[in-house]
Amino acid sequence: MVGEVYLDLYILVNGSMDLLCLLLSARLCHAKTARLRLIGAAAFGGLYAAGSLLLGIFGGWAILADLLAALLMSAIAFWRRETSFTRFLRLTFVVFFVSALLAGLLTLFYRALNRLSLPIEALSGDSLSVWIFAILGGLSGLLTIKGGRFLGYAGKHREATLSVDFGFGEVRLRALVDSGNLLKDPIGGRGVVVAKASKILPILPQDLRERLTQKDPAVWLEGGQPIRLIPAKSATGECFLPALLPKRLLLDDGKEKTPVDYLVALSELGTSDGFDALLPPD
Predict the structure, then answer these.
(1) N or C: which end of the chain has fewer CB within 10 A?
(2) Long-range contacts of range 250-259, CB-CB < 8 Å, 24 or more positions apart?
(3) What are the boundaries of each domain within the chain?
(4) What is the pTM of this model?
(5) Contact of 152 with 158, CB cutoff 8 Å
(6) 180 or 142: whose pLDDT is higher?
């Protein structure tokens, strides 16, 4: 059966859905990227979809080509010099998974439209109506805009830049709000930011830096700088983290800079997906 496909609408539908997939993936993985890079990656996705249709790529080759396309889209949208290869592969997998999920939902919607008695050109088999394409294109574009705005609103407080100044120098940290960070100062009940020790130690005086590199909490408390011991749980059991009260702590969410009142505890953080600090949820 021969069908008629409007290539411009086909590119629009696939490109707008790819943009939505990239926005969702960026939010799910907390990946920072530029808007133009997202648009460029989505445009590539739309052109790839049209090219694969014209070339007639099906079966196992189609799956392989889709994986390669997801890899290139991720590279256009998210690749940075400091991005680890593992994180890049994770982003690619999320893009491919979200794309497959949304494609399935769109197919269900398309089939539902076929079963309705709508005053538009009737469809049969694989024939594609221009009106159906227009409806799907508009729907995917609306989902892209609304979904992006919703996810932007939901995620705007999850990632921020934290400026820390102890009076000896300032450091800027890429911070993530972590609902699991429930650490509190046992004395005053103040919330605690957990920061990478490797980011904080270089701005501290040498004597304080040397004390904090020791494993013994008793050594941390020596000297004139007040240090709080924050009880914490790790994979190996309970421990203490050394925490300092900054002279100035400024939270920048991209729209405004807000002074916050937290202690800053030093830790290795382990696998933190490129973040330098974990903020408390409140």
Answers:
(1) N
(2) 250/162, 250/163, 251/160, 251/161, 251/162, 251/163, 251/175, 251/279, 252/160, 252/161, 252/162, 252/163, 253/156, 253/157, 253/159, 253/160, 254/156, 254/160, 254/161, 255/156, 257/163
(3) 7-155, 159-279
(4) 0.47
(5) no
(6) 180
Give yes or no for residue 271 having a pLDDT over 70: no
CA torsion sign, 36 to 271 to 153 to 254? negative
- Residue 206, exposed/middle/buried by CB under 10 A (0-12, 13-18, 19+)? exposed
- The chain-wide mean pLDDT, for the chain, equals 77
Could you give the C-alpha distances from 45 to 17, 39, 66, in angstroms and in order? 9, 10, 10
**Dist CA 169 CA 248 (whole Å):** 10
Dihedral sign for Cα atoms in the order 41, 45, 50, 56: positive
Are 210 and 234 in contact by the 8 Å Cβ rule? The answer is no
CATH tag, 159-279 = 2.40.70
Reply yes or no on whether the pLDDT at 118 is more than 80. Answer: no
Report the sign of the C-alpha dihedral through residues 108, 111, 117, 120, in that order.
Answer: positive
pLDDT at 21: 82
Query: Which of 43, 42, 63, 54 is closest to 7 using CA atoms?
Result: 54
The share of the chain scoring above pLDDT 90, in percent, equals: 9
Residue pointed to by tokens 């103040």:
190
